[in-house]
Design goal:
The protein has 119 residues and is of the alpha+beta class. The protein contains three helices and five strands. It has a single domain, classed as Alpha-Beta Plaits (2-Layer Sandwich).
C-alpha cells in the first residue's frame, strides 16, 4: 500500500495580501526544501486574477507529514492565515491517526483510496 499523504489546500487571498503571501511562500518553500527530506512535493499555484491560491503538498508517509506540520504550526500557520481565508482542504492517501489528529483544526475532507496505482 502507498504510504504517501498529500493534500490540496485552497486559500482565498485577502485584499492587499498578495505580496505578503508571496514572501511567506518563498520562506516556507525554501525552509521545507532545505529541512524536510520526506517532502516529495510542495507546490503553490495561483489563479489568473490572483485571488485563489492552491497549495499541493505530498509527503512520503505520515511521519514526514507530522514533521512538516510541527514546523508549520510553530512558524507559519498564523502568518499564512493573515494573508487569506481557508476555503477548501482535501486530504488524500492513508494518513495515520496522529496525522488526522494534527489536522483536526483545519477542517479537512479525507479522500480514501479505492483503486488505482502509483509508480
Amino acid at each position: 500500500m502507498n504510504k504517501n499523504v498529500f493534500w490540496i489546500f485552497e486559500l482565498t487571498i485577502k485584499e492587499g495580501q498578495l505580496e505578503n503571501l508571496k514572501a511567506l511562500m518563498t520562506e516556507m518553500v525554501d525552509a521545507t526544501k532545505a529541512n524536510e527530506p520526506g517532502t516529495i512535493a510542495y507546490e503553490w499555484m495561483i489563479n489568473a486574477d490572483n485571488t485563489i491560491c492552491h497549495i499541493h503538498e505530498c509527503y512520503a508517509d505520515s511521519e514526514a507529514t507530522l514533521a512538516h506540520l510541527s514546523t508549520f504550526v510553530e512558524k507559519y500557520a498564523g502568518r499564512l492565515m493573515e494573508t487569506g481565508d481557508a476555503t477548501r482542504f482535501e486530504v488524500y492517501g492513508n494518513p495515520n491517526d496522529a496525522v488526522k489528529e494534527a489536522l483536526a483544526g483545519f477542517g479537512g475532507v479525507y479522500m480514501t483510496p479505492i483503486g488505482g496505482f502509483v509508480r
